[in-house]
Each structure stands twice: as C-alpha cells, then as structure tokens.
Amino acid sequence: MSFWENFWEILWWSFCAFVFFAYLFAIFAVIVDLFRDHKLSGWWKAVWIVFLIFLPFLSLLVYLAARGEGMARRSMDRAGRDQTEVNGYFRHTASVSPSDEISNAKALLDAGTISAAEFDRIRSRVVR
C-alpha cells in the first residue's frame, strides 16, 4: 500500500470516528435535555426515549427541529444559574477576612471540634 492510500484511509477513519462521537454527543445532549425539561410529562419523555432507541437518527433530527429552541433556552438558563452560584460563592469567600477565619478556627478549637495541630495549620494558611 502506498503512502497516499494509507493517508486517505487514516483520514477516512478519523472522519468516521469524529462523526460517530458527534452523533453520540448529540444523543446524550437530547437525553439530558429531556430530563432537564420539567414542563414535559413523564409519558412524553418515555416516548422520546423509545423513539431514540429504535429510530435514533430520525428521532434526533425531529427532536432538534421541534424542540431545539427550547433546548437552547434551557441550556442558557442552566448556564446562567451556574454562573450566579459561582459568583455568589466568590463573593462569599472574598468577604471572609483572615481575622474572621482565625476566630472561627479558634472557636472550633475551643469547642473541641478540631485539634491544636489543625488550628495551627489553618492559622498558618491564613497568615501567608
């Protein structure tokens, strides 16, 4: 086999693998969206799953055509909620001062929840 025949065969198999994994990703995205949609009843979810099992390619195309806009909206809503949670976490952790953290650790030490070694480790981490 020549170099070019080998090259085109490798390229063809790479393309087929890409298409296959893209297809699996799309099926997975549809299944996740089905269970993320709280307005869709359980029976309709079951019907979509059955169609995805027995007619996967056709069901995937129909789902994306019929419910693609809602799928994108639910995905954006989820990303917005996740970003809000991350921002809240960063605001909370940034608002805790080192002296507050040391006093909280001291209260835990006095209550017997943590050992003196753990308190020293927390204090040395905060003081850095």
Automatic annotation (TrEMBL):
It is found in: Cell membrane. Residues 27-67 form the Cardiolipin synthase N-terminal domain. It is a multi-pass membrane protein. The chain crosses the membrane at residues 12-35, 47-66. Keywords: Cell membrane, Membrane, Transmembrane, Transmembrane helix. The keyword Plastid does not apply. Signal peptide: none annotated. The keyword Transmembrane applies. Pfam families: PLDc_N. It comes from the Bacteria. InterPro entries: CLS_N. This is Cardiolipin synthase N-terminal domain-containing protein. It comes from Arthrobacter ginsengisoli.
